[in-house]
Specification:
The protein has 2 domains: 17-117, no CATH class; 127-219. Helices cover 57% and strands 0% of the residues. The chain has helices at 17-21, 25-28, 40-53, 73-88, 92-98, 105-117, 120-132, 141-157, 164-173, 180-186, 194-225. The N and C termini lie far apart (119 Å).
């Protein structure tokens, strides 16, 4: 959609530059986009929701020709704020890759998305390797499950088939040996789902921590009850002549 009367055209239903500048972008998009980490799906989702919530979609979807909006100070100010949002939620490497004089918000948005969607096959191979190699090791349940779900979301976003059965089996296989019994019990959960698995594993992790704490407490108490080892007898006095 374009407008010849750009100086009076306002494509928004309420927002103004002051409102938009007042948004704390790091609260609304608590993610740093980086090519070395699986953050694209979450980053894009947060921004898409933010655009819809504040009637900013026109700035990035191509429905408005920004060249026709040069004389509209509100449009220009909001567009500049969006560009700053992008630049402050991406890694330094990505910033230097996409920054260019004269770009509007849509141009920056298209560039950033293109870095993650233009090479789908290569990215799919990379993400699949990470997904199937993902193991808990010494991570907490929350960290492990979050990482696995993030990789699954990234794969789904580029069209790879990662159904719930594959996600749940990969999650179970990657648990460390401490969760051996818990892994067996997961198969008994009715109507299994990722949230149900995570909730069960969190409780199991909490139970295991409680058991470990009690064992340590009992060991400490047992050591204290025995008392300190008897001190060595003093050396005999030398006989007097």
């Amino acid at each position: 959609m374009t407008s010849s009367g750009s100086s009076s055209y306002n494509p928004f239903a309420g927002p103004n530059p002051t409102d938009i500048r007042g948004i704390n972008i790091h609260d609304r998009v608590p993610i740093v986009l980086d090519v070395t980490d699986a953050t694209y799906f979450a980053w894009k989702t947060c921004f898409s929701l933010l655009f819809c919530e504040n009637n900013l979609v026109d700035h990035v979807d191509g429905s408005v020709d920004s060249r026709a909006m040069v004389g509209n100070s509100e449009w220009t100010a909001i567009d500049a704020t969006l560009i700053w949002w992008f630049f402050t939620t991406i890694s330094k490497d990505l910033f230097h890759t996409v920054v260019s004089n004269g770009d509007d918000a849509r141009a920056v948005w298209v560039k950033l998305n293109g870095l993650f969607t233009d090479n789908k096959l290569q990215r799919c191979v990379f993400l699949q390797q990470e997904f199937f190699d993902c193991h808990q090791d010494d991570q907490s349940i929350d960290d492990y499950c979050r990482r696995l779900k993030t990789l699954a979301d990234e794969l789904r976003d580029i069209g790879a088939k990662v159904d719930d059965d594959l996600l749940l089996s990969t999650l179970t296989t990657g648990l460390n040996e401490d969760f051996g019994n818990a892994a067996s019990n997961l198969s008994l959960i009715p109507e299994p789902s990722f949230p149900k698995f995570v909730a069960y594993l969190r409780l199991e992790e909490r139970r295991m921590k409680g058991v470990k704490k009690r064992v340590q407490h009992h060991a400490l108490a047992a050591g204290t009850s025995r008392g300190a080892p008897p001190s060595a007898a003093p050396p005999a006095s030398a006989p007097r002549h």
